[in-house]
Amino acid sequence: MEDIVNRVAASKLISLNLEDYYPAGERVQYDLIDNLYEGLILREKDFRTAIKEHDWSQYKGKFVAITCTADAIIPTWAFMLIASKLEPFASDIVFGDLQFLNDHLIKEAIKKINPEDYRNAKVVVKGCGDLPITAGAYVEITKILTPVVSTLMFGEPCSTVPIYKQPKH
Predict the structure, then answer these.
(1) 51 is in which domain, residue-wise?
(2) Maximum distance among all Cα pairs of the chain, rounded to whole angstroms
(3) pLDDT for 8
């Protein structure tokens, strides 16, 4: 009887799980719709009063997306004012919805990866998981790794989709 050899375990593939770079922390959305008069108009005096009375400390340590889900024209300074109030408390602030916030956070984390750690390596970027890793994150890791890896794949080491192979010189 021949020994069973696990070729995946014996290979020199490096498995990269983007979930390992997913920043932990609560994500919340601040929607300016709550500050609009009749859901349509931002009145500066009322807005400034609401902003002054709001408890901004509730955002301490959270990731915050600032948005307006109403079809209203919001002056740029209103978003700036909200950001200035959040800045002392929030871990990070973006303009956009929660999906944009997640994309921003994971991309920022991926940018901290040292591509030299993967020079001439065969890398498999894990494709399934429990966290909401965006397509933008996969594009970001591809952009970072393509110049240095010998091979880039997507999926699991036992079932990969080839993405990039360094040309032979």
Answers:
(1) 27-90
(2) 84
(3) 43
- Could you tell me if 136 and 83 lie in one domain? no
Which of 152, 149, 162 is closest to 120 using CA atoms? 149
- How many folded domains does the chain comprise? 2
Please check whether residues 136 and 84 belong to one and the same domain. Answer: no
3-state secondary structure of 116: helix
Spatial CB neighbours of 112, under 8 Å, sequence gap ≥ 6: 21
Residue spans of the chain under pLDDT 70: 1-11
CA 60 to each of CA 50, 96, 104, 140: distance values in angstroms, whole numbers, following the listed order: 19, 19, 19, 29
Distance CA 161, CA 147 (A): 18
Instruction: Give me 15's structure tokens.
Output: 């498995």
Give residues with Cβ within 8 angstroms of 155, minimum separation 6.
124, 126, 127, 161
pTM (predicted TM-score): 0.81
Domain-embedded: residue 100: no
